[in-house]
Amino acid sequence: MKREGLAEKIGSGKYKSDILVIGGGATGLGIAVDAAARGYRVVLLEQDDFSKGTSSRSTKLVHGGVRYLAQGDVRMVIEALRERGRMRRNAPHLVRDMRFIIGNYKWWERSFYTVGLTCYDLLAGKLGLGRSLPLSSSRIKKEIPGLKQDGLMGGVVYHDGQFDDSRMAITLAQTAFDHGGACLNYVRVNGLEKDSSGRVCGVRAVDLLDGHEFTVNSRVVVNATGVFIDDVMGMDSRQANKKVRPSQGVHLVVDRKFLGGDSALMIPKTRDGRVLFGVPWHDKVVLGTTDTPLNEASLEPCALEEEVDFILDQAGQYLAKQPTRSDVLSVFAGLRPLAAPTNGDGQKTKEISRSHKIYQADSGLLTITGGKWTTYREMAEEVVDRAIGIGGLSRRKCVTANMKLHGYAVQGPESGWDYVYGSDREKLRQLEQNDAANKELLHPEYSFRVSHVLWAVREEMAQTVEDVLARRVRALFLDARAAIEMAPRVASILAKELGKNNEWAREQVAVFNQLAKCYLI
Protein backbone atom coordinates (compact mmCIF):
# COMPACT_ATOMS: atom_id res chain seq x y z
CA MET A 1 0.00 0.00 0.00
CA LYS A 2 2.26 2.73 -1.31
CA ARG A 3 0.15 5.83 -1.89
CA GLU A 4 2.54 8.08 -3.82
CA GLY A 5 3.11 5.88 -6.87
CA LEU A 6 -0.48 4.67 -6.91
CA ALA A 7 -1.91 8.20 -6.80
CA GLU A 8 0.34 9.19 -9.68
CA LYS A 9 -0.75 6.17 -11.73
CA ILE A 10 -4.49 6.63 -11.17
CA GLY A 11 -4.23 10.43 -11.38
CA SER A 12 -2.68 10.19 -14.86
CA GLY A 13 -6.19 9.91 -16.29
CA LYS A 14 -5.20 6.84 -18.29
CA TYR A 15 -6.19 4.27 -15.67
CA LYS A 16 -9.30 2.26 -16.55
CA SER A 17 -11.21 0.09 -14.13
CA ASP A 18 -14.01 -2.42 -14.36
CA ILE A 19 -15.56 -1.40 -11.04
CA LEU A 20 -14.92 1.93 -9.31
CA VAL A 21 -16.04 2.21 -5.69
CA ILE A 22 -16.72 5.54 -4.00
CA GLY A 23 -16.32 5.19 -0.24
CA GLY A 24 -13.67 3.54 1.93
CA GLY A 25 -15.72 2.20 4.82
CA ALA A 26 -16.64 -1.41 5.54
CA THR A 27 -19.03 -1.70 2.60
CA GLY A 28 -16.81 -0.06 0.00
CA LEU A 29 -13.70 -1.93 1.08
CA GLY A 30 -15.60 -5.20 1.09
CA ILE A 31 -16.71 -4.55 -2.49
CA ALA A 32 -13.13 -3.78 -3.50
CA VAL A 33 -11.93 -7.05 -1.97
CA ASP A 34 -14.66 -9.08 -3.67
CA ALA A 35 -14.12 -7.50 -7.09
CA ALA A 36 -10.32 -7.77 -6.92
CA ALA A 37 -10.46 -11.37 -5.72
CA ARG A 38 -12.61 -12.26 -8.76
CA GLY A 39 -9.96 -10.76 -11.01
CA TYR A 40 -11.68 -7.51 -11.99
CA ARG A 41 -9.81 -4.22 -12.21
CA VAL A 42 -11.04 -2.24 -9.23
CA VAL A 43 -10.35 1.26 -7.91
CA LEU A 44 -11.64 2.58 -4.59
CA LEU A 45 -11.60 6.30 -3.76
CA GLU A 46 -12.16 7.62 -0.23
CA GLN A 47 -12.51 11.35 0.49
CA ASP A 48 -10.82 11.08 3.89
CA ASP A 49 -9.08 8.10 5.46
CA PHE A 50 -10.23 4.49 5.30
CA SER A 51 -12.96 3.88 7.91
CA LYS A 52 -12.90 7.55 8.98
CA GLY A 53 -16.67 7.49 9.46
CA THR A 54 -19.03 4.93 10.95
CA SER A 55 -16.79 1.94 10.23
CA SER A 56 -14.30 2.89 12.96
CA ARG A 57 -16.98 3.84 15.50
CA SER A 58 -18.90 0.61 16.09
CA THR A 59 -19.52 -1.32 19.32
CA LYS A 60 -16.67 -3.63 18.18
CA LEU A 61 -19.05 -6.57 17.77
CA VAL A 62 -19.32 -9.22 15.08
CA HIS A 63 -22.79 -10.47 15.85
CA GLY A 64 -26.07 -11.81 14.60
CA GLY A 65 -28.08 -9.30 16.59
CA VAL A 66 -29.90 -10.71 19.60
CA ARG A 67 -32.40 -7.87 19.61
CA TYR A 68 -33.25 -8.44 15.95
CA LEU A 69 -34.24 -11.98 16.88
CA ALA A 70 -36.51 -10.58 19.58
CA GLN A 71 -38.06 -8.33 16.91
CA GLY A 72 -38.77 -11.37 14.73
CA ASP A 73 -36.28 -10.53 11.96
CA VAL A 74 -35.10 -14.15 11.76
CA ARG A 75 -33.83 -13.96 8.20
CA MET A 76 -31.44 -11.11 8.96
CA VAL A 77 -30.19 -12.88 12.10
CA ILE A 78 -29.46 -16.06 10.15
CA GLU A 79 -27.54 -14.11 7.50
CA ALA A 80 -25.55 -12.21 10.13
CA LEU A 81 -24.73 -15.34 12.15
CA ARG A 82 -23.49 -17.07 9.02
CA GLU A 83 -21.29 -14.09 8.16
CA ARG A 84 -20.12 -13.84 11.78
CA GLY A 85 -18.74 -17.36 11.48
CA ARG A 86 -17.05 -16.57 8.18
CA MET A 87 -15.40 -13.44 9.58
CA ARG A 88 -14.06 -15.46 12.49
CA ARG A 89 -12.79 -18.17 10.13
CA ASN A 90 -11.27 -15.83 7.53
CA ALA A 91 -9.64 -13.36 9.94
CA PRO A 92 -8.93 -15.13 13.25
CA HIS A 93 -6.26 -12.54 14.03
CA LEU A 94 -8.94 -9.85 14.20
CA VAL A 95 -12.19 -11.58 15.21
CA ARG A 96 -12.37 -13.25 18.62
CA ASP A 97 -14.97 -15.32 20.39
CA MET A 98 -16.38 -13.35 23.32
CA ARG A 99 -18.52 -14.63 26.18
CA PHE A 100 -21.49 -12.34 26.85
CA ILE A 101 -23.22 -12.43 30.21
CA ILE A 102 -26.82 -11.44 30.93
CA GLY A 103 -27.33 -11.03 34.66
CA ASN A 104 -30.77 -12.06 35.89
CA TYR A 105 -32.52 -10.24 38.72
CA LYS A 106 -36.01 -11.77 38.30
CA TRP A 107 -36.92 -15.44 38.80
CA TRP A 108 -38.17 -15.99 35.24
CA GLU A 109 -35.31 -14.35 33.33
CA ARG A 110 -32.78 -17.18 33.33
CA SER A 111 -35.16 -19.67 31.66
CA PHE A 112 -36.51 -17.03 29.29
CA TYR A 113 -33.10 -15.92 28.01
CA THR A 114 -31.68 -19.45 27.93
CA VAL A 115 -34.45 -20.58 25.57
CA GLY A 116 -34.13 -17.50 23.35
CA LEU A 117 -30.36 -17.69 23.12
CA THR A 118 -30.46 -21.44 22.42
CA CYS A 119 -32.53 -20.54 19.35
CA TYR A 120 -29.83 -17.98 18.50
CA ASP A 121 -27.23 -20.77 18.63
CA LEU A 122 -29.30 -23.10 16.48
CA LEU A 123 -29.69 -20.45 13.78
CA ALA A 124 -25.88 -20.21 13.52
CA GLY A 125 -25.62 -23.91 12.61
CA LYS A 126 -22.10 -25.20 11.99
CA LEU A 127 -20.70 -21.66 12.10
CA GLY A 128 -21.65 -21.15 15.75
CA LEU A 129 -19.05 -19.86 18.23
CA GLY A 130 -20.27 -21.57 21.39
CA ARG A 131 -23.27 -22.79 23.30
CA SER A 132 -25.57 -20.63 25.44
CA LEU A 133 -25.94 -21.89 29.00
CA PRO A 134 -27.58 -20.83 32.28
CA LEU A 135 -25.10 -19.86 34.99
CA SER A 136 -25.34 -19.69 38.76
CA SER A 137 -24.96 -16.38 40.55
CA SER A 138 -21.58 -17.49 41.93
CA ARG A 139 -20.31 -18.21 38.42
CA ILE A 140 -21.63 -14.86 37.16
CA LYS A 141 -19.79 -13.07 39.98
CA LYS A 142 -16.59 -14.83 38.96
CA GLU A 143 -16.93 -13.93 35.27
CA ILE A 144 -17.93 -10.28 35.81
CA PRO A 145 -16.87 -9.19 39.31
CA GLY A 146 -18.03 -5.66 38.54
CA LEU A 147 -21.67 -6.66 38.05
CA LYS A 148 -24.09 -5.45 40.72
CA GLN A 149 -24.51 -8.33 43.21
CA ASP A 150 -27.58 -7.16 45.11
CA GLY A 151 -30.52 -9.28 43.98
CA LEU A 152 -28.50 -11.25 41.39
CA MET A 153 -30.22 -14.63 40.89
CA GLY A 154 -27.93 -16.06 38.20
CA GLY A 155 -27.63 -15.43 34.52
CA VAL A 156 -27.03 -16.72 31.02
CA VAL A 157 -23.89 -16.83 28.89
CA TYR A 158 -23.92 -16.72 25.10
CA HIS A 159 -21.22 -16.26 22.47
CA ASP A 160 -20.68 -13.57 19.84
CA GLY A 161 -17.67 -12.12 18.07
CA GLN A 162 -15.54 -9.13 19.06
CA PHE A 163 -13.10 -7.30 16.78
CA ASP A 164 -11.23 -4.11 16.05
CA ASP A 165 -13.24 -2.35 13.36
CA SER A 166 -10.78 0.07 11.79
CA ARG A 167 -8.03 -2.56 11.87
CA MET A 168 -10.41 -4.81 9.92
CA ALA A 169 -10.92 -1.97 7.44
CA ILE A 170 -7.16 -1.58 6.91
CA THR A 171 -6.91 -5.36 6.53
CA LEU A 172 -9.55 -5.27 3.79
CA ALA A 173 -7.65 -2.52 1.97
CA GLN A 174 -4.49 -4.61 2.20
CA THR A 175 -6.37 -7.68 0.98
CA ALA A 176 -7.67 -5.74 -2.02
CA PHE A 177 -4.07 -4.74 -2.81
CA ASP A 178 -2.94 -8.34 -2.42
CA HIS A 179 -5.35 -9.26 -5.22
CA GLY A 180 -4.41 -6.42 -7.55
CA GLY A 181 -6.96 -3.81 -6.45
CA ALA A 182 -6.18 -0.12 -5.89
CA CYS A 183 -7.50 1.81 -2.88
CA LEU A 184 -6.71 5.51 -2.40
CA ASN A 185 -7.52 7.68 0.60
CA TYR A 186 -7.86 11.48 0.54
CA VAL A 187 -9.39 11.55 -2.93
CA ARG A 188 -12.76 13.28 -3.25
CA VAL A 189 -15.15 12.52 -6.08
CA ASN A 190 -16.59 15.79 -7.39
CA GLY A 191 -18.71 14.52 -10.25
CA LEU A 192 -19.73 11.62 -12.46
CA GLU A 193 -18.66 11.12 -16.06
CA LYS A 194 -21.33 10.00 -18.53
CA ASP A 195 -21.19 8.75 -22.11
CA SER A 196 -23.33 9.95 -25.01
CA SER A 197 -26.21 7.71 -23.94
CA GLY A 198 -26.26 9.08 -20.40
CA ARG A 199 -24.62 6.06 -18.80
CA VAL A 200 -22.16 6.65 -15.96
CA CYS A 201 -18.69 5.74 -17.24
CA GLY A 202 -16.35 7.19 -14.62
CA VAL A 203 -15.76 9.93 -12.07
CA ARG A 204 -14.07 13.30 -11.75
CA ALA A 205 -11.93 13.48 -8.64
CA VAL A 206 -9.35 15.58 -6.82
CA ASP A 207 -6.41 14.42 -4.73
CA LEU A 208 -6.87 16.44 -1.54
CA LEU A 209 -3.20 16.13 -0.61
CA ASP A 210 -1.82 17.92 -3.66
CA GLY A 211 -4.90 19.42 -5.35
CA HIS A 212 -4.44 17.40 -8.56
CA GLU A 213 -7.71 16.91 -10.47
CA PHE A 214 -8.21 13.88 -12.68
CA THR A 215 -10.71 11.50 -14.25
CA VAL A 216 -10.99 7.75 -13.80
CA ASN A 217 -12.91 5.74 -16.40
CA SER A 218 -14.84 2.68 -15.27
CA ARG A 219 -17.36 0.19 -16.62
CA VAL A 220 -19.37 0.47 -13.39
CA VAL A 221 -19.44 3.03 -10.56
CA VAL A 222 -20.61 1.98 -7.09
CA ASN A 223 -21.75 4.51 -4.49
CA ALA A 224 -20.88 3.08 -1.06
CA THR A 225 -20.52 6.33 0.88
CA GLY A 226 -22.66 5.48 3.91
CA VAL A 227 -24.53 8.48 5.28
CA PHE A 228 -23.38 10.52 2.26
CA ILE A 229 -24.97 8.37 -0.47
CA ASP A 230 -27.58 11.03 -1.24
CA ASP A 231 -24.82 13.49 -2.15
CA VAL A 232 -23.38 11.12 -4.76
CA MET A 233 -26.82 10.16 -6.05
CA GLY A 234 -27.47 13.88 -6.47
CA MET A 235 -24.49 14.06 -8.85
CA ASP A 236 -26.34 11.63 -11.07
CA SER A 237 -29.84 13.12 -10.99
CA ARG A 238 -32.12 15.16 -8.81
CA GLN A 239 -33.83 13.07 -6.14
CA ALA A 240 -37.27 13.56 -4.66
CA ASN A 241 -36.62 11.57 -1.49
CA LYS A 242 -33.53 10.88 0.55
CA LYS A 243 -32.44 7.25 0.68
CA VAL A 244 -30.59 7.32 3.99
CA ARG A 245 -31.56 8.35 7.49
CA PRO A 246 -28.60 8.95 9.82
CA SER A 247 -28.84 7.61 13.35
CA GLN A 248 -26.15 8.51 15.87
CA GLY A 249 -24.66 5.88 18.14
CA VAL A 250 -22.40 6.97 20.99
CA HIS A 251 -19.92 4.88 22.99
CA LEU A 252 -17.99 5.60 26.17
CA VAL A 253 -14.65 3.99 26.99
CA VAL A 254 -13.78 3.35 30.62
CA ASP A 255 -11.21 1.35 32.57
CA ARG A 256 -11.64 -2.42 32.54
CA LYS A 257 -12.08 -2.43 36.35
CA PHE A 258 -15.75 -1.57 35.82
CA LEU A 259 -16.35 -5.13 34.57
CA GLY A 260 -13.35 -6.77 36.17
CA GLY A 261 -13.19 -9.86 33.96
CA ASP A 262 -12.74 -10.97 30.37
CA SER A 263 -16.45 -11.50 29.60
CA ALA A 264 -18.76 -8.88 28.14
CA LEU A 265 -21.98 -7.61 29.69
CA MET A 266 -25.25 -7.41 27.79
CA ILE A 267 -28.10 -5.41 29.29
CA PRO A 268 -31.15 -6.69 27.36
CA LYS A 269 -33.41 -3.69 27.73
CA THR A 270 -32.76 -0.06 28.59
CA ARG A 271 -35.35 2.63 29.10
CA ASP A 272 -35.40 3.48 25.37
CA GLY A 273 -35.93 -0.17 24.40
CA ARG A 274 -32.39 -0.79 23.12
CA VAL A 275 -29.82 -3.21 24.45
CA LEU A 276 -26.66 -1.88 26.09
CA PHE A 277 -23.26 -3.54 25.99
CA GLY A 278 -20.14 -3.41 28.10
CA VAL A 279 -17.45 -4.97 25.92
CA PRO A 280 -13.79 -5.59 26.87
CA TRP A 281 -11.60 -4.09 24.15
CA HIS A 282 -7.82 -3.59 24.19
CA ASP A 283 -7.70 -3.70 28.00
CA LYS A 284 -10.53 -1.14 28.30
CA VAL A 285 -14.34 -1.42 28.29
CA VAL A 286 -16.62 0.03 25.62
CA LEU A 287 -20.08 1.02 26.89
CA GLY A 288 -22.84 1.69 24.39
CA THR A 289 -24.77 2.50 22.41
CA THR A 290 -27.45 5.12 21.74
CA ASP A 291 -29.82 5.62 18.83
CA THR A 292 -30.42 9.30 18.09
CA PRO A 293 -31.97 10.35 14.75
CA LEU A 294 -30.19 13.25 13.05
CA ASN A 295 -31.10 15.41 10.10
CA GLU A 296 -27.55 16.13 8.94
CA ALA A 297 -24.51 13.94 8.45
CA SER A 298 -20.93 14.91 9.23
CA LEU A 299 -17.51 13.26 9.06
CA GLU A 300 -16.79 14.00 12.72
CA PRO A 301 -20.01 13.77 14.76
CA CYS A 302 -19.87 14.58 18.46
CA ALA A 303 -21.74 12.98 21.32
CA LEU A 304 -24.67 14.87 22.79
CA GLU A 305 -24.73 15.53 26.52
CA GLU A 306 -27.94 13.54 26.93
CA GLU A 307 -26.40 10.54 25.16
CA VAL A 308 -23.46 10.48 27.57
CA ASP A 309 -25.80 10.79 30.56
CA PHE A 310 -28.02 8.00 29.23
CA ILE A 311 -25.16 5.49 28.93
CA LEU A 312 -23.71 6.37 32.35
CA ASP A 313 -27.13 6.08 33.98
CA GLN A 314 -28.14 2.79 32.36
CA ALA A 315 -24.74 1.13 32.87
CA GLY A 316 -24.69 2.34 36.46
CA GLN A 317 -27.89 0.44 37.22
CA TYR A 318 -26.10 -2.86 36.54
CA LEU A 319 -22.54 -2.16 37.68
CA ALA A 320 -21.40 -2.29 41.31
CA LYS A 321 -19.37 0.88 40.76
CA GLN A 322 -21.29 3.43 38.71
CA PRO A 323 -19.03 5.17 36.15
CA THR A 324 -19.06 8.95 36.18
CA ARG A 325 -17.97 11.53 33.66
CA SER A 326 -14.53 11.70 35.24
CA ASP A 327 -14.08 7.98 34.55
CA VAL A 328 -14.63 8.32 30.80
CA LEU A 329 -11.34 8.01 28.92
CA SER A 330 -12.84 8.63 25.49
CA VAL A 331 -16.25 9.17 23.92
CA PHE A 332 -16.88 8.57 20.23
CA ALA A 333 -19.92 8.90 17.99
CA GLY A 334 -20.79 7.25 14.70
CA LEU A 335 -23.63 7.67 12.22
CA ARG A 336 -25.50 4.59 11.06
CA PRO A 337 -26.52 4.86 7.38
CA LEU A 338 -29.98 3.42 7.89
CA ALA A 339 -32.03 2.84 4.77
CA ALA A 340 -34.77 5.47 5.11
CA PRO A 341 -38.26 4.03 5.66
CA THR A 342 -40.81 4.56 2.93
CA ASN A 343 -43.85 4.74 5.21
CA GLY A 344 -43.30 8.19 6.63
CA ASP A 345 -40.95 9.75 9.16
CA GLY A 346 -42.73 8.56 12.28
CA GLN A 347 -40.79 5.32 12.57
CA LYS A 348 -38.20 5.22 15.35
CA THR A 349 -34.65 4.57 14.20
CA LYS A 350 -34.32 1.55 16.50
CA GLU A 351 -37.25 0.01 14.60
CA ILE A 352 -35.85 0.66 11.12
CA SER A 353 -34.47 -2.52 9.61
CA ARG A 354 -30.69 -2.84 9.55
CA SER A 355 -30.97 -4.79 6.30
CA HIS A 356 -29.15 -3.23 3.37
CA LYS A 357 -30.75 -1.84 0.22
CA ILE A 358 -29.33 -1.57 -3.28
CA TYR A 359 -30.50 1.02 -5.80
CA GLN A 360 -29.73 0.91 -9.52
CA ALA A 361 -30.23 4.20 -11.36
CA ASP A 362 -31.19 4.51 -15.03
CA SER A 363 -27.64 5.76 -15.62
CA GLY A 364 -26.22 2.53 -14.23
CA LEU A 365 -24.99 4.10 -10.97
CA LEU A 366 -25.17 1.42 -8.29
CA THR A 367 -25.81 2.55 -4.70
CA ILE A 368 -25.84 0.52 -1.50
CA THR A 369 -26.90 1.64 1.96
CA GLY A 370 -27.82 0.11 5.31
CA GLY A 371 -26.40 -3.13 6.62
CA LYS A 372 -23.75 -3.53 9.29
CA TRP A 373 -20.12 -4.58 9.72
CA THR A 374 -20.94 -8.24 10.26
CA THR A 375 -22.60 -8.61 6.86
CA TYR A 376 -20.10 -6.55 4.86
CA ARG A 377 -18.92 -9.57 2.82
CA GLU A 378 -22.38 -10.73 1.82
CA MET A 379 -23.34 -7.17 0.86
CA ALA A 380 -20.22 -6.91 -1.29
CA GLU A 381 -20.99 -10.17 -3.05
CA GLU A 382 -24.47 -8.96 -3.95
CA VAL A 383 -23.17 -5.61 -5.24
CA VAL A 384 -20.47 -7.16 -7.43
CA ASP A 385 -22.98 -9.65 -8.84
CA ARG A 386 -25.17 -6.70 -9.84
CA ALA A 387 -22.18 -4.76 -11.20
CA ILE A 388 -21.26 -7.62 -13.52
CA GLY A 389 -24.58 -7.28 -15.32
CA ILE A 390 -24.49 -3.49 -15.47
CA GLY A 391 -20.96 -3.36 -16.89
CA GLY A 392 -21.24 -6.36 -19.17
CA LEU A 393 -18.31 -7.96 -17.39
CA SER A 394 -17.36 -11.60 -17.79
CA ARG A 395 -19.16 -13.52 -15.07
CA ARG A 396 -16.90 -14.87 -12.34
CA LYS A 397 -17.95 -16.50 -9.07
CA CYS A 398 -17.45 -14.89 -5.69
CA VAL A 399 -14.54 -16.46 -3.78
CA THR A 400 -14.55 -14.49 -0.50
CA ALA A 401 -16.73 -16.80 1.62
CA ASN A 402 -13.71 -18.98 2.42
CA MET A 403 -10.88 -16.58 1.57
CA LYS A 404 -8.24 -15.77 4.16
CA LEU A 405 -7.74 -12.05 4.69
CA HIS A 406 -4.38 -10.26 4.78
CA GLY A 407 -2.39 -11.10 7.91
CA TYR A 408 -4.28 -14.35 8.51
CA ALA A 409 -2.91 -16.06 11.59
CA VAL A 410 -4.42 -18.41 14.12
CA GLN A 411 -3.39 -17.00 17.48
CA GLY A 412 -3.91 -17.86 21.10
CA PRO A 413 -5.28 -15.40 23.68
CA GLU A 414 -2.07 -13.39 23.66
CA SER A 415 -1.57 -10.23 25.63
CA GLY A 416 -0.46 -7.03 23.97
CA TRP A 417 -2.29 -4.79 21.58
CA ASP A 418 -0.50 -5.77 18.38
CA TYR A 419 -2.21 -9.15 17.92
CA VAL A 420 -4.33 -7.27 15.35
CA TYR A 421 -1.44 -7.37 12.87
CA GLY A 422 -1.56 -11.15 12.57
CA SER A 423 1.28 -12.51 10.47
CA ASP A 424 2.61 -8.96 9.94
CA ARG A 425 3.74 -8.91 13.57
CA GLU A 426 6.94 -10.59 12.46
CA LYS A 427 7.69 -7.70 10.09
CA LEU A 428 7.05 -5.23 12.91
CA ARG A 429 9.49 -7.13 15.09
CA GLN A 430 12.01 -6.95 12.27
CA LEU A 431 11.68 -3.16 12.26
CA GLU A 432 12.52 -3.16 15.95
CA GLN A 433 15.45 -5.51 15.50
CA ASN A 434 16.86 -3.26 12.80
CA ASP A 435 16.77 -0.21 15.08
CA ALA A 436 16.30 -0.37 18.84
CA ALA A 437 14.78 3.15 18.78
CA ASN A 438 11.75 1.67 17.03
CA LYS A 439 10.91 -0.22 20.23
CA GLU A 440 10.37 3.00 22.14
CA LEU A 441 6.90 3.57 23.55
CA LEU A 442 4.78 6.51 22.43
CA HIS A 443 3.34 6.74 25.95
CA PRO A 444 4.49 5.11 29.21
CA GLU A 445 1.02 3.70 29.96
CA TYR A 446 0.38 2.10 26.56
CA SER A 447 2.12 -0.45 24.36
CA PHE A 448 1.99 1.59 21.14
CA ARG A 449 5.53 1.89 19.79
CA VAL A 450 7.48 3.85 17.21
CA SER A 451 7.45 0.75 14.99
CA HIS A 452 3.65 0.94 14.78
CA VAL A 453 3.84 4.50 13.46
CA LEU A 454 6.49 3.58 10.89
CA TRP A 455 4.43 0.61 9.73
CA ALA A 456 1.30 2.76 9.48
CA VAL A 457 2.92 5.30 7.15
CA ARG A 458 5.06 2.87 5.15
CA GLU A 459 2.60 0.00 4.72
CA GLU A 460 -0.89 1.25 5.59
CA MET A 461 -1.15 4.60 3.79
CA ALA A 462 -1.42 6.72 6.95
CA GLN A 463 -0.98 10.41 6.06
CA THR A 464 -1.82 12.32 9.24
CA VAL A 465 -1.46 12.15 13.02
CA GLU A 466 -5.18 11.41 13.19
CA ASP A 467 -4.82 8.47 10.78
CA VAL A 468 -2.23 6.94 13.09
CA LEU A 469 -3.69 7.66 16.52
CA ALA A 470 -7.36 7.16 15.65
CA ARG A 471 -7.37 4.25 13.20
CA ARG A 472 -3.96 2.52 12.81
CA VAL A 473 -3.38 2.38 16.54
CA ARG A 474 -6.53 3.09 18.52
CA ALA A 475 -5.15 5.56 21.05
CA LEU A 476 -7.73 8.30 20.43
CA PHE A 477 -10.60 5.86 20.95
CA LEU A 478 -9.04 4.30 24.02
CA ASP A 479 -7.76 7.33 25.89
CA ALA A 480 -8.10 10.75 24.29
CA ARG A 481 -5.87 12.54 26.80
CA ALA A 482 -3.07 10.06 26.34
CA ALA A 483 -3.45 10.37 22.56
CA ILE A 484 -2.98 14.14 22.82
CA GLU A 485 0.25 13.50 24.70
CA MET A 486 1.42 11.13 21.94
CA ALA A 487 0.64 13.53 19.09
CA PRO A 488 3.94 15.52 18.99
CA ARG A 489 6.07 12.35 18.78
CA VAL A 490 3.85 10.88 16.07
CA ALA A 491 3.90 14.14 14.09
CA SER A 492 7.71 14.20 14.23
CA ILE A 493 7.94 10.63 12.90
CA LEU A 494 5.43 11.31 10.15
CA ALA A 495 7.19 14.51 9.07
CA LYS A 496 10.45 12.64 8.64
CA GLU A 497 8.82 9.75 6.75
CA LEU A 498 6.73 11.97 4.46
CA GLY A 499 9.42 14.61 3.86
CA LYS A 500 7.55 17.38 5.65
CA ASN A 501 8.99 20.29 7.66
CA ASN A 502 8.60 21.26 11.30
CA GLU A 503 5.81 23.71 10.53
CA TRP A 504 3.76 20.85 9.02
CA ALA A 505 4.35 18.79 12.18
CA ARG A 506 3.23 21.63 14.45
CA GLU A 507 0.11 22.16 12.35
CA GLN A 508 -0.68 18.45 12.51
CA VAL A 509 -0.50 18.51 16.31
CA ALA A 510 -2.77 21.56 16.49
CA VAL A 511 -5.35 19.99 14.16
CA PHE A 512 -5.30 16.72 16.09
CA ASN A 513 -5.66 18.43 19.47
CA GLN A 514 -8.68 20.32 18.21
CA LEU A 515 -10.23 17.09 16.93
CA ALA A 516 -9.51 15.24 20.18
CA LYS A 517 -11.64 17.72 22.15
CA CYS A 518 -14.70 15.99 20.69
CA TYR A 519 -13.56 12.76 22.39
CA LEU A 520 -13.30 14.35 25.82
CA ILE A 521 -16.05 15.12 28.32
UniProtKB/TrEMBL annotation:
Its cofactor is FAD. SUPFAM superfamilies: FAD-linked reductases, C-terminal domain (SSF54373), FAD/NAD(P)-binding domain (SSF51905). Keywords: FAD, Flavoprotein, Glycerol metabolism, Oxidoreductase. Residues 18-376 form the FAD dependent oxidoreductase domain. It comes from the Bacteria. InterPro entries: DAO_C, DAO_C_sf, FAD-dep_OxRdtase, FAD/NAD-bd_sf, G3P_DH_FAD-dep. One of its GO terms (molecular function) is glycerol-3-phosphate dehydrogenase (quinone) activity. Residues 420-502 form the Alpha-glycerophosphate oxidase C-terminal domain. One of its GO terms (biological process) is glycerol-3-phosphate catabolic process. Belongs to the FAD-dependent glycerol-3-phosphate dehydrogenase family. PANTHER family: ANAEROBIC GLYCEROL-3-PHOSPHATE DEHYDROGENASE SUBUNIT A, GLYCEROL-3-PHOSPHATE DEHYDROGENASE. This is Glycerol-3-phosphate dehydrogenase/oxidase. It comes from Maribellus luteus.
